[in-house]
Predict the structure.
Amino acid sequence: MIVRADQFDASLIKAKRDGLAPVYCISGDVPLLVQEAADQVRAIARQAGCHERVVLEADRSFDWQGLSQSSNSMSLFAEQRLIELRLPSGKPGDAGSKALQAYCQGVVSGQSDGDVLLLVTGKIEKASFKTKWFKALEKVGVIVQFWPLRGQQLQDWIERRLLSQGLRADPKAVHILATSSEGNLLACAQDIDKLRLLCDGDYLDTDAVTDAVVTSARYDVFLLVDAALLGNAARSSQILAGLRAEGTDATVVLWALAREIRALLSLVMVVQNGQPLSAELSRLRVWDNRKYMVESAVRRLSMPAVRAMLARAARLDRVIKGRETGNVWDELLQLSLMMAGVRPLKMVS
């Protein structure tokens, strides 16, 4: 069965009482939530007698017969085992699909001998929900997917995280934590750990959080790209300034911007030709939670504007390599603002 992320803890409490499901599939593109959910399953499995753990890495060279061999081999040290299968891509392919279906069929026929399969994957695309392997997992086990937290969901998560550390905070302090971490849960969890060590007492007010967290706010090149796509020029400038202050390599910033500009060129061309944008978004593998950002930029930017961005990115590459003169960070700012829809300053050669 599919369990919502906010129901997963309750399902594990029930599992402690009634026993674990034979299969758990934990997926998503929020590494901290996926990791901690998997840790919970591992802990309960140990308590239930799964003292032996078999770890399989399903990379491109993985032989899926390894899953069958692991499920059929006898345990040397325990009657029950935790078989952990890591699938970063979220796509098992034909061989993996057959192997997972066969494993689930073995569960139905009682051949698993009490073993627990823990499948930890990257984001599973919606199209995979109709596949035979996904339906087989859904039939015999528990599937949970973790998505990025936004708005009130993020603030609720922060409040729960604080309580787990024996801390409380006023609403403004929680909001500061959410804003300063930029939605990066790992960064936010680290800030909460730091607050637990630095702050006296168990109550955090706005001043305490500001002093401990805001001065070390994190910036990321992908947040810069997202802000520019949404047309938020002020936010783009703020993030770029933060990247510069943190000593981020300008080449990395240019790479992220140029990659997005090339995608925009393809998308704008599709729109000009009267073709559906959805097909091109899928071809470019734009994640569902980013499509609205990209579509916003496509509606705002013309073909000449995108070509001008490409020309500016090419010149900036030459500036970084010392082949042309110019201020790299000023040029990066202009490129970011162009993506946000601001009319560019004339290039100086």
Observations:
- Strands lie at 2-3, 23-28, 52-57, 81-87, 116-121, 142-146, 168-169, 203-204.
- The chain has a mean pLDDT of 84.
- The first helix runs from residue 8 to 18.
